[in-house]
Amino acid sequence: MSDRGRFIWYELITPDMAGAKRLYGDLVGWTAQDMPMPDGGGESYSVLSAGGDGVAGMMNLGEAMKAEGMPPNWTGYVCVDDCDAAAEKVKTLGGSVRRPPQDIPGIGRFAIVADPAGAVFAIMKPSPPPGARPPPDINAVGRTGWHELYGADPETGFDFYAGMFGWTKADAMPMGEMGIYQLFNNQDGQVGGMMRKPDNVPGPHWLFYFRVADIDAAAAKVKAGGGQVLMGPMAVPNGEWIVQGVDPQGATFAVVARKG
User: Rounded to two decimals, what is the model's pTM?
Assistant: First the structure.
């Protein structure tokens, strides 16, 4: 099965890699392994692993990024068959290319893009393309269990992602004045939801939910690690519990678990 349309990587850009490793290591259980950046320059890249598998990465928010106005953030990478063609398609569908396609030697070709509402994400063609592999286990601790977009009204904003990746709509949950919460599927089934950005949310963005073993313990660890709990623990309709937070460096994230 092709990985096209799957989130295949998650990347934290932070001004304090050591502090972020401590928080997420304690909170999610990730282990970190540093490696030199492919372009040299003295910077390192940390691969974060769960159960022996690399699931995310971390890099330093350098001065050049700060000069561009980039805040600490988590970015999701969606797999495409052709990075250059996909970047052009982003533009034809009303989005924008923030960083044009470029190669990461031995890893793949990627671009940083934004949907028409301005929510940023990455597209990547891995190199070499992976062979057939099972879908990711979103219920395993340390994996990303949910993908949530705060952006355009899903009644119109969803068309961009359907056109880009072939995602399909699942159930639509009414939320009163906040509009609808549109669940969506990729080839693995239901993997996320979209909603109109609330007025109190600074800007359109993707929020990623990392799976933890215990939601109450996770909320306590966020606070103990110097982060801030924005919401939760809160029950959601599928019987799970979530916490949304901000890490000490300013990047937003969320965690999900069964109660207890």
Answer: 0.92
